[in-house]
What does this fold into?
Amino acid sequence: MNHDHAQPNHEHAEPENENAQPEHEHVQSDHEHIPAPIAVGRPAGTGGRRVTIRGRSAGVAHSDADVVEFLRRAGLPDAWEYLDDPHWVDWQDGRPRTYDTTPPGHGDHGEVIG
It folds into this structure.
């Protein structure tokens, strides 16, 4: 068995400024956090979630289609692909893509189904 392993080449040019860091090694600090431009608020007891786009109220969504329509009106076509991207949409206080507070297995008025 051959135990010789090729060693990686660690030679690289030294930066001209000894404090300089390569561009690809940028470290994001806490104060650089950029909030998602779309916020979907907590599900309301009566159903629906308030949607804000860049801090402006867009309306109350009762489905993904409503959120996508609000985004289309705001100038973001083909918004379906952004719904699951946390850089675009912040689903606040609730599961993403759910629009009411009725527990699974219950009807609209709290009765158990089944």
Q: What stands out?
A: The chain has a mean pLDDT of 75. The beta strands are 38-40, 49-53, 56-61, 89-91. The radius of gyration is 24 Å. The longest helix spans residues 64-73.
